[in-house]
Amino acid sequence: MRSRNLLTRFLAATSALFVLAACGNAPASPPANPAADAPPRPPGAAKPNVVVVLTDDLSSDLVRYLPEVQRMQREGADFPQYSVTDSLCCPSRSSLLSGKYPHNTGVFTNSGADGGFHKFHETGGEQSTIGTQLQGAGYQTAFMGKYMNGYQPDGTVDGKPNYVPPGWNTWAVAGDGYKQYDYQLNENGRIVEHGHAPHDYLTDVLNRVGTDFIRSNAAANRPFYLQLNTFSPHGPSTPAPRHETLFPGLTAPRGPAYNEADMSDKPGWLRGMPPLGQKQQAKIDEQYRLRAQSIQSVNDMLADIRETLQQTGQADNTYVVFSSDNGFHMGEHRLQNGKQTAFETDVVVPLAITGPGVPAGSRPEAQVENTDLRPTFAELAGAPTPPDVDGRSFAAQLHGRQAPWRTASLVEHHGPNHAPRDPDRQKRRQGNPPTYYAIRTPEGTYVEYDNGDREYYDKRSDPNQLNNTYSSLSEQQRNSLHAALAGLRQCRGAAECFAAGRPA
Fold first, then answer.
1. Dihedral angle at the C-alpha atoms of 347, 292, 78, 374, nearest 10 degrees?
2. Is 459 exposed, middle or buried, given 0-12, 13-18 or 19+ CB atoms closer than 10 A?
3. Using one digit for the tens of pLDDT, what is the confidence trace for 270-308?
4. What digits encode the pLDDT tens for the residues 439-495?
5. CA 252 to CA 226: how far, in whole Å?
6. How far apart are the C-alpha atoms of 46 and 356, rounded to whole Å?
7. Cβ–Cβ under 8 Å, residues 411 and 438
8. End-to-end distance of the chain based on CA atoms, in angstroms?
9. Residues with active-site annotation
């Protein structure tokens, strides 16, 4: 495996993201045969493998501390406009697995009547996921790490103890793994207890079982789909022992939105937020340093996965995908550490992909969402996607070809959230907005709150989202934005949602 000393020296010298070449997308009518966007595969060629590493709460400003992700951006595709359907763990994960928006999964929060694992299960979401789809196409499928809020490794569901959802040949999932130690792991229905020794560190455990899965299936010449979901860098952001002393003195970025000077234009829930004090800013810096330390084990995992693929002869036939379930703000708009807002810090997250036919250093500007991952992986595998899936394959953009794409992305959020046992419960200073719905377009972000508040941020003149200009929009502009949002909020299925995402 790669030298940790080399990694540490690389990290000490790395401070900026690489500038990559851009590639655009031309507006046009949807193609008659979307499957034609899949890369050609010679007759008899092996189906490609897919490995997904999904982090928890990783914001884009942390990529500078992930040299393996930077390497993926150089060697493959980086999607700068990739966003999630909700900046919250369970709704986002439900959308990724199912390919559906929250209004079609029914999962808007982490618990209660409109969220959590039990909502996804009770509405039949687990019966049609990327796991069931690829398993049905002859793939060996594996899910490891964090599943959904409310899932317990030793829980009984529908009378089945130590429940394992359908669609997964290999299952190695923890419940409360946020501390990285002292957790249970459900390994294919068998409960394994882990303590507080260094070898129990959860991200490293997932690294070991993940690379073992790759080796065993490569040896058996079986196509595989592996999804590795880390708990890092979610709080408490516990680093591995070998990384505990890295980045001394590191502070959180202080961009234009940090501790924003004028909040008078913000919606009611945010408008009266006082400036951050010195102690609060010191706490933000401490947490940012822990986040940077905690993801070094994720970087090690990526390095080991890619090296294992090389050693087993699978590197040239495997798509490796890196992303996060949501972003994270730390000081922006006077908010302490948190998520759940419609700001870019929270809904735009990294998406880097390498694999066969992916142009090195490409930077597609397509507004891809997490709903699009399932149909994309399915198309790469040659598996038809059910028509009720809301997302659409972006295989063409991934392989450097121009193709029609949406111009509006949907965000849906229910709040405020006050569930006492929710690991994502946030206080007012962290940001806990009321229910809202939003769309992101190349021009800006438009937000409608259930209480009547509105926001509009012009991306071209105000990329840091400092000035809410909704009050200056014309009535025609307001009506157009409202109609576009309403269309996406009501859509069902790929055809309808793709059309709604291309408003006139």
1. -60
2. middle
3. 999 999 999 999 999 999 999 999 999 999 999 999 999
4. 999 999 999 999 999 999 999 999 999 999 999 999 999 999 999 999 999 999 999
5. 33
6. 12
7. yes
8. 52
9. 89
